[in-house]
Amino acid sequence: MAAQAPTAPADVYAEVQHFYARQMRYLDSGEAETWARTFTEDGSFAPPSLPEPVRGRAALTAGARGTAAGLADAQEQHRHWVGMLTVTPSDDGSLTAESQVSIVAVPRGGPARLHLVCVCRDVLVREDGELLVRERVVTRDDRP
Asked: Where exactly are the structural domains of the chain?
């Protein structure tokens, strides 16, 4: 049996959970700039729907704004639910946070439906005592 990776202490684990609760609320409520500020200045976000990662807060803000506008036009609200979270500390002080994320789509006037399930792997770092995403890679089971 392979050795288990070290896990973060309970207080750090709870801090990461709170980080995601805030971050996903910003995204789901269309607060694009606030959401982008949860990334480092040069942070990257690599979703499976794009050929290259989105890099930097300005590009992250623009992408989140575009998504929010598209959802508003479609009269649909998305809600991200982060679960099955593991947090592994690294020797350099960063944390690797891996989770399964369910995205629920709620059309205005219609029933909610499961839109997407994905795996999110983040490298979190501290800047001025605050957790930020340096790198996010999202994968889907239904795509190579």
From this structure: 10-139
Outline where DSSP puts E strands in the chain.
39-46, 54-55, 76-89, 95-107, 113-127, 130-139
Nearest to 100 by CA among 118, 79, 86: 118
Alpha carbon distance 26, 48 (integer Å): 21
The tokens for 46 are 């690599």
> Which residues, 6+ apart, have CB-to-CB distance to 25 below 8 Å?
none
10-139 topology per CATH: Nuclear Transport Factor 2; Chain: A, (3.10.450)
Six token digits for residue 143: 């795509």
Give the model's confidence band at 6: pLDDT under 50 very low, under 70 low, under 90 confident, else very high: confident
The answer to whether the pTM exceeds 0.90 is yes
141 DSSP 8-state letter:
T
What are the tokens at 4?
A: 């288990």
> Which tokens belong to 83?
């679960």
How do residues 123-140 score in pLDDT, each as one tens digit? 999 999 999 999 999 999
